[in-house]
Amino acid sequence: MTAGSQPAHFPAARRADQSASYVTGERRRSRWLAAAELGLISSTFSTIVSQLFAARIGRDAAVDWMTVAAIPARDWAISAEPSWHAILAGIAFHQWADFSWALLFFGVLGRWTADLRPRTILLLALPWAVFSSSLEWFVLVPLFPFWQPLITLQQPYWIGLLVHGSSAVMYPLFARLRWRRGHAPEHDVRFTNAWTTGALGVVAVLGASALFGGHGYESPWIGRVRDADQTYIRHMTAHHAQGIELARIAVGRAQAPHLQKLAMLMVASQSGENRIFENWWLSWFDTEMPDCSTEERAAMPGFLTAAEMREVKTASPDQFDTVFVEMMSKHHRGAVRMADQMWHSQGDPRLRIMAHAIRHEQQGEIALMHGANGIAAVTTAFHNMLGDKVN
Fold first, then answer.
1. I need a labelling partner for 304 at 20 to 30 A (CA). Which of 184, 311, 328, 351 fits?
2. How many Å separate Cα 182 from the centre of its chain?
3. 69 and 184 share a domain?
4. Are 90 and 69 contacting, i.e. CB atoms less than 8 angstroms apart?
5. Residue 20 CB: number of other CB atoms within 10 A?
6. What number of CA atoms fall less than 13 Å from residue 215's CA on the CB side?
7. Could you tell me the residue range of the domain that residue 180 belongs to?
8. 80 near 264, Cβ under 8 Å?
9. pTM of the model
10. Boundary residue ending a domain (214, 249, 280)
């Protein structure tokens, strides 16, 4: 080939490259449209997994959805018994958030993410779940733009991480959605087919677990010391029962609206946890749960005496809020100590996970009763979740 003949070949090569690029572009769909479809899929998968898996680790899904609804809806969402309106609002807000994170990952950042292979997407999606859940828990929810400390103080960070992780594991499907029907690379088709089958299998397994669990057939107890776990369940159930009684008084008598709503949340959350305790007891030990004796109740940390309960019930309207906060804080600190002992024990892993959440929740509610907000709420929640010392 001579030097003079080279330029004649270059335009033809460029036209071939442009033609190939044009054909590839025709076979691909808009990354924004694909990201929107993925957002619907990933958020729906996350919602289903969260709903089915919650009770397996000691979470009442209805209460959690109600709490999520309180991020945008504030006090409207909170009641002593989660309403369907609040539950659906919580699910809708969660799905909107997950949908938005998918649009950000593949739309806004699509210049770098839209052409990745499924395995690479998965490797990036899991750190993305850590990043997005952290940003929500530390900033977006308790600070700007929502300024709602409830979630951060009431739910430990790992709950949000699990939710975001269940959404992120569906991100590899984007590699298939990015192409028009019949034009996706065969290796991506095989991977995403297997991934979809696996996701459906997970839903089926969780659905079966939830079905059997709802009828009193949870997976067997796997702790090391049966008596210790039984004592903890009995004591925490009795402790919660008194907490529910105390909170119900505040629902009717609290003067401050935020205390009244927080008392409603206490009733809802502790009632849900007691239902889980009762279901686990029947499933694991196949017998009715014995009631706690008077001596056991008196020895429980934070369990109020009859005189202290009378003091709350007979407090004058202008003194009620002060008395309630003092007594409920004492009660909560006792529950935190009980939960902390379980968290550091060799009990059934589900009891320990649930105890960590109770530990975080009740310390957070003490802070909320005292008006924690903004940066102070985030700092308190962070120490509550990770700190070994109990307030």
1. 351
2. 37
3. yes
4. yes
5. 10
6. 5
7. 28-214
8. yes
9. 0.92
10. 214
